[in-house]
Amino acid sequence: MARVLLLLVSTVVLAACTTVPPTNVHQPMTVRPQPRNEALANGSIYQSGSSRTLFEDRRARYVGDTMTIVIAETTSASTKSNTNVSKASNISASVPTVSGLPGKSFQGIGLSAETSNTLAGKGDAAANNVFTGNIAVTVIEVMPNGNLLVSGEKQVSIGHGTEYIRLSGVVNPYFISTANTISSANVADARIEYKESGAISEAQIMGWLARFFLSVLPF
């Protein structure tokens, strides 16, 4: 009895714990800046490790640099199909009056048959999604051609729930503006996620026992 009670308490405690939703963005989602191998002397004001030329914009270009991605995703898709099939057939036959043959009771009988098949189908589907916002990401890798692999996460806690905004992808430095921002439309291999955890999101998930019965019931 004590073991069963302990098992029930453990199940309730685990169910009450808020779990972080899984992600498919590129990992890791943040890294520390790497030291640069530059054989330059440091002075009291000038530091070679964090130096930038006077005529260079403050754009992300090294591992550990941050940049802002303006999320402006709008997708719209619709499909429509119509099907109409009709088939009709008519068969008629009659037995003429013939003399000198048996079965005269069937003479003059007419036989007719009619069939008709009709099939009509119609289907419509539409989807519209809008996702806007800003998120700061970190350069986690500089590719040989100069492109930047970026990844980042933003957590917003409201009440007892937490919202997770995640983004990763490949950025061409040519598209980075002077304000160190870029539109999500210019991010290659983009993976954008908006997930949440808490009582509201957990209420939309079917319990494990209900899922078990649905998987074994034959109807």
Plain-language structure description:
The protein is mainly beta and 219 residues long. It has a domain at 80-124. It has helices spanning 2-16, 199-203, 208-216; strands at 66-94, 110-142, 148-158, 161-171, 181-183, 187-197. It has a 6-stranded mixed beta sheet with strand order 5-1-2-3-4-6. A hairpin with a 2-residue loop joins strand 3 (148-158) and strand 4. The longest helix is centred in the first third of the chain and has 15 residues, at 2-16. The two termini are 35 Å apart. Mean pLDDT is 76; it is low at 12-16.
Write the layout of secondary structure elements.
Elements: H1 2-16, E1 66-94, E2 110-142, E3 148-158, E4 161-171, E5 181-183, E6 187-197, H2 199-203, H3 208-216
Parallel strand pairs: 1-5
Antiparallel strand pairs: 1-2, 2-3, 3-4, 4-6
Summary tags:
219 residues, six-stranded mixed β-sheet, 3 helices
| Tally of helical segments | 3
Give the tally of β-strands. 6
Helix content: 10-25%
Counting helices, strands and paired strands, the structural category is mainly beta
The separation of the N and C termini measures: 35 Å
- Computed over alpha carbons, the radius of gyration is 35 Å
Query: What's the pLDDT, averaged over the residues?
Result: 76
Which H/E pattern describes the elements?
Answer: HEEEEEEHH
Largest sheet: 6 strands, mixed
Characterize the overall form: elongated
Contiguous runs where pLDDT drops below 50 for at least 5 residues: 12-16
Strand content: 35-45%
Sheet with the most strands: spatial strand order: 5-1-2-3-4-6
